[in-house]
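With this grant's support, we have settled on a layout for protein records. An illustrative entry appears below exactly as we store it:
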Amino acid sequence: MTYYRYRFSFSYGFPPLIKKLMILMGAFFLLQMFVSHRINFYLGLVPILVWKKYFFWQLLTYLFLHGGFTHLLFNLLALWWFGGELENYWGPKKFLFYFLFCGIGAGILTVLLSPLQFIPVIGASGSIYGLLLAFGWLFPNRPIFIYFLFPIPAKYMVILYGCIELFASLEGTGGGIAHITHLGGLLFGLFYMSYPMLRHKIRQTYYRRKWTKKESGGKDYYH
């Protein structure tokens, strides 16, 4: 994850669910340190094991493992920065569903697009990118400071990161970064946020056609 922050006071402190997720990620990181890094092949996301051995739990557990202290630190900071306000806005239940929806969705996309990969994918970045998408959707003009220096409205940052991950994902997993997983978090976040609007348009189109058919004596007219 890139260094970033956004400009407003963190007066909400640590919402309860954010705190629990951070503690859980920290506990998993300690487990990685004191048990063995082989745990990454059991609890991390290994696409070929999901396909061949049905390790479906990995679609969830990979979110709580990390590749090092820096990886963990910046995911925790991003979880707090973006997730804190989202949890207060949505409430803990809806926030948890969204967090897992984006993370598991990102894992599913990774497995589908790289089914033979044996390198474990670990980290909450899929969910974090989903949080970034939601933050940009709900607070589009909120300034985010990239590298603590350059302000950019949240909506443009989401677009920028989406383009970066789209092009980077074409090269697969490079430099130890699972770009497909990041892109998956963004895509599933976009679907979640836009679904109410899409559902409304689908229902509106359905009832419009139904009414047109009724008025025309049972014939369909397309316009």
Notes: The longest helix spans residues 179-215.
